[in-house]
Design goal:
The structure is a homodimer. By secondary structure, chain A is α/β, with parallel strands linked by helices. Chain A has one domain: Rossmann fold (3-Layer(aba) Sandwich), CATH 3.40.50.720. Helix content of chain A is 42%, strand content 23%. Chain A is built from eight helices and eleven strands. Chain A has an eight-stranded mixed β-sheet, sandwiched between helices. In chain A, helix 1 crosses helix 2 and helix 4 packs parallel to helix 5. The radius of gyration of chain A is 16 Å and the shape is globular. At the A-B interface, strand 7, helix 8 and strand 11 of A face strand 7, helix 8 and strand 11 of B.
Amino acid sequence: MISFIGGTGPEGRGLALRFALAGEKVFIGSRDSARGIEVAEKLNDLLHTNFIEGGGNEEASHADTIVIATPYQAQKDILQSLKPNLNHKTIINVIAPLTFSKSGIKAISVKDGSAALECQKILSNSLVVSAFNNISAHDLLKKDKKIDCDVIVCGNDPNSKKTVMNLAEKIHQVRSIDGGGLENSKYVEDLTALLLNINKIYNWHSSIKITS
Amino acid sequence: MISFIGGTGPEGRGLALRFALAGEKVFIGSRDSARGIEVAEKLNDLLHTNFIEGGGNEEASHADTIVIATPYQAQKDILQSLKPNLNHKTIINVIAPLTFSKSGIKAISVKDGSAALECQKILSNSLVVSAFNNISAHDLLKKDKKIDCDVIVCGNDPNSKKTVMNLAEKIHQVRSIDGGGLENSKYVEDLTALLLNINKIYNWHSSIKITS
């Protein structure tokens, strides 16, 4: 079971859809459990499956594999309240802290260095890995669209990182790239601001590939 | 004539080589004019051309198209001394401000926001465009290696940006991407730190492509 905390936004729904397409059981948690259930039902209808369940964030926090997909501004409060349930687990943080204004999209400067580092500071007994920050939610949600991109995965625990790299490659055509330690997540998170600005200029839904 | 200020480092040499390969006249400037001449001669020998000249930074600063390729730490002093010669010109900044240590490669936090914004602040009467920050110097310098990547170009003046986007595509197989205003250069500069960490992990010489 892959469980989403704050999973009703575009990135959470998109990843949930793709993991369900890969045959994984998924749980979509929300602050409003009725909303979690509603989103899960809609995704099941879209996929003609019953792989996706929904409910509250507290219920979501009991799974083995947890994805944090809250808005950045909500991360701190939600994680502090769920911390006891998240100890010693691999926690996948997909948050890119951004502000949107008429002049463009900007990365927020996070006091702890990045959303992932803030998450690790709060969940000091968990194994935080950042991933999926750059992948286009728009494309994830179009179930027939091929996702031809790389997912850069940053984390300090090699086993947790490997688990998340394998999970990412369950999405058809995705390649995982080891992005090093969690401190490098900042570069991946901030890159999302650049990609969204490029999207505005070209009317794209961009992601990235590393060439070598 | 494409002229490099601080052009004897790997990125300057690599870009000079590629522009000469594309048939452009190039000038490699250095604080030590003898070193500029020496580097130019070596590149001419490698390419069997005489397209590349070398000399001092002051001489370099008289060209119409100027590339700033100094180490980040040297940018301020060099640009302040050459400012009168750079007024009203398109200035291409390729600098990614980085620190290297045993624990990895990190982006330096620049007071003015990025190397490109610092450059624009100093050269207040010039049209600064950032580009080429992510392209692998190692690959640029291998003259038979295909450079299959995107160059993200950020700048506030549309005409200057277009000029630099066209220049980048003189490198065979490179695609230019409009990265928006100069304030977005920070994301492109910092991405270089991520790519260099990935290089260490995989023993690659990575660049990026935007997928859409």
